[in-house]
Amino acid sequence: MTTPDVRGLEQLERAVLDDSTSLASALRRFIMLAGYAHHDELRSWALKELEGYASTDELPPYRQVPAALEVAWDLNLPGRIITGQTRRISPSDLPQPARDRGIGESAPIRQGVRELAAIVASSEKGVRLSPPGAAEYATLMTRHQHQQGQWAIDCTSLHWDLSVPSIEGVLDHIRTRLTQFVAEVRTSMPSGQQDPNSDQIESAAQQALNITTGDGSTVSITAANAKADHGGTASASTNEPTPPAPQPWWHRTSVIWGAIAALGTIAGVITTVAIR
């Protein structure tokens, strides 16, 4: 038996179409509509978007964004310390525990939409996001360099470097999904119907959000399109042969560091400069 009075669609429609209305407010209106429809899966999805995702495993694909891997390092020269330097690295440069964990050039965005909006508002250039275990991996990379004789280099952090538009894209995707949901409900409503019924809400949930109901069912939100960004690709094959692993960046730059260290020694005789 259908329930003919699922209220809140008009308020949700106004919220998602008005860019001056925050995405958090639109999601709260969506939760109210889902409550009137007795649709637990819709409410669960909206709550996760508001409060953030507890686990990377439950993240929808649109919350995995392309991101460059970077390390920050200090260079310890005689009489001088150069700090705050960064270098982009490839996943093959990571310690084995980080590679085993699947850390690569894709960053999980787990924060709630209000926190993401605040990050966008306060960031002018880019955003750094540290993967779980980043401090341990930085220590392992420093230890490996010291074992290779690169005593002057200390890795101080490992992080993803995200562009602000990447985070804005996540927020825009969520708003677009809500808009598509409203459009699907409107499409299913005959002329003259004021409020949708629960069957129309269920159909729109499947069409726009790929959410289905059922005992013990899993909420599944899929992106409408695969997207490549910054020269990346939206597909990958696990059956292709693995190319030989390149030498880590601290091996490739050992000659450079040796030359810098030598220059630092000479400079240290003339003057001592401490960069803090």
Topology:
Elements: H1 9-17, H2 23-36, H3 40-51, E1 64-66, E2 68-77, E3 80-89, H4 96-100, E4 106-108, H5 113-122, E5 126-129, H6 134-147, E6 153-163, H7 164-188, H8 198-209, H9 249-252, H10 254-270
Antiparallel strand pairs: 1-4, 2-3, 2-6, 5-6
Helix pairs in contact: 1-2, 1-7, 2-3, 2-7, 5-7, 7-8
Would you give an account of this structure?
Helix 2 runs parallel beside helix 7 (164-188). By secondary structure, this protein is of the alpha+beta class. It is elongated. Strands 3-2-6-5 form a 4-stranded antiparallel sheet. It has a two-stranded antiparallel sheet with strand order 1-4. Residues 213-247 and 249-276 have low confidence and may be disordered. Strand 2 (68-77) and strand 3 (80-89) form a beta hairpin. The protein has helices at 9-17, 23-36, 40-51, 96-100, 113-122, 134-147, 164-188, 198-209, 249-252, 254-270, and strands spanning 64-66, 68-77, 80-89, 106-108, 126-129, 153-163. It has 2 domains: 9-58 and 168-209, no CATH class; 63-167 and 248-270, no CATH class. 24% of the residues are buried. The chain has 10 helices and 6 strands; from the N terminus they run αααβββαβαβαβαααα.
